[in-house]
Amino acid sequence: MRATGSWSVPPERLELRFTDKKPAFSKAEAFAEASRCLYCHDAPCTIACPTSIDIASFIHKIATGNYRGSARTILKSNLLGASCARVCPVEVLCEGACVYMDWGRKPIEIGRLQRFAMEQGRSVELLPRQEKKSESIGLVGGGPASLACAGTLALLGYETVIYEKSQLPGGLNVSGVAPYKIRAEDVLDEVKFIQSLGVQIQTGVELGRDFSGEELLAKHAAVFFAPGLGADSLRGVPGADGSSVVGAVDWIADMKLRSEAALEGVSSAVVVGGGNTALDAVQELASLGIPEVTLVYRRSEEKMPGYEHEWERAKEKRVRLLAERAVSEIHRDSSGKMRSISLLRTENGRSTAQEAGELPCQLIVVATGQERLASLAALFPKVQCDEKGRVVADPETMATGNPRVFTGGDCYNGGKEVVNAVDDGQRAARAIDRLLRGEN
Fold first, then answer.
1. How far apart are CA 246 and CA 270, in angstroms?
2. pLDDT, position 259
């Protein structure tokens, strides 16, 4: 187990080769952009935000130079406002709802303004705390849902302990988000902010290995279960068990936290999938100088679930799409090194018997949807999963079938945005507080 707060990232790692997709505003730039805001009475941007940040209010405070007040407004609704400012798909959330869009004009850059407010004004002193309470809450997983839940509960006076199996807390924020959106050290800065609210974090400890669900329930008054998702894989594909086949989340983690050696000898890479994680991966590979980057997707381009603006960015980087294709076999040389893949045509997302050629390849990144972690949920009595492996919970309270176990984040929603995980965590925290005060 690693001591609380002693985390660091290697000084030499691939993610440092990426520049900010949306760089920080200067004070002059922030003032100019904030002054464009119309401070709409019905604020469609706030309605579009899953955590309902009072966007017009925080922007107005920036325009008047009240940076601490701006940060306070954000933190009241979203304790992870710093990372959400940078990783949220604002194009389809707050900025996508901006009234300027209706007039064919550039929307207010809400994400960059939120980042500015967090960097200029965030402080522990901005958030009121209640008196200490006797109960403690254990949280499984150190990602955004748990951080938001633990921080909210700590402000309500509870002792909170996060148990994270990795050596670094932060979940996919620290290891799975594209580096041109946010870097690992910035995530760890936010984790330390959550710690400063009174949250304890233990890393390198794992549910099912170091402790059981029953032990957590015996130790804590309530448990928040948010372990994220499992690994990506190419099940049943001959040759997939060898080297150079890696899940997208693992690939991004390696790229963000390790050195350049991971790409030695790779001239052609394939990413399998069509979601946002796949689109992040192809952009990263292309930006890192891989000459040939191909996206293989089982349906048509029009049915890709990834955001259109991310796919447009990928095409600008000369990423090639092979739509309605599936990997059928991976070919290796006598030493086991990958040399090419065979493809089959697909119909309605299902493989056919029609061959679609062979493609040179030295690396495959799989982003077809991570496995759910139903086996972990089963460690808690009465906690159930649905047919897709997602934890079943009341969407209003995040309570599971066990009245003392709550959930949120990817294991519950199947893999949505960071801001959705934050909303789940804060919603659960309020429900846990009501439960322990006897109001449920």
1. 11
2. 62
Q: Strand 222-225 relative to strand 320-323: parallel, antiparallel, unpaired?
A: unpaired
Residue pair 29/230 in contact by the 8 Å Cβ criterion:
no
What does 212-224 look like in DSSP terms, one character per residue? -HHHHHHHSSEEE
Residue 370 per-residue DSSP state: P
**Residue 228, SS3?**
coil
| 277 vs 291: CA distance, rounded Å | 20
> What are 122-169's pLDDT values in tens digits?
999 999 999 999 999 999 999 999 999 999 999 999 999 999 999 999
Give yes or no for a contact between 284 and 37, defined as CB atoms under 8 angstroms apart.
no
> Which CATH number describes the domain made up of 245-366?
3.50.50.60
Q: Which fold has domain 20-125?
A: Fumarate Reductase Iron-sulfur Protein; Chain B, domain 2 (1.10.1060)
**What is the distance between the terminal CA atoms of the chain, rounded to a whole angstrom?**
35
Q: Which two tokens stand for residue 134?
A: 């006797």
Lowest mean pLDDT among 112-121, 205-214, 346-355: 346-355
CATH of domain 130-230+371-436: 3.50.50.60
pTM for this structure? 0.91
Q: Encoding tokens for residue 69? A: 């007040």
Q: What is the pLDDT of residues 243-286, one digit of tens each?
A: 899 988 888 888 888 765 567 789 999 999 999 999 999 999 99
User: To which residue do tokens 């009241």 refer?
Assistant: 76
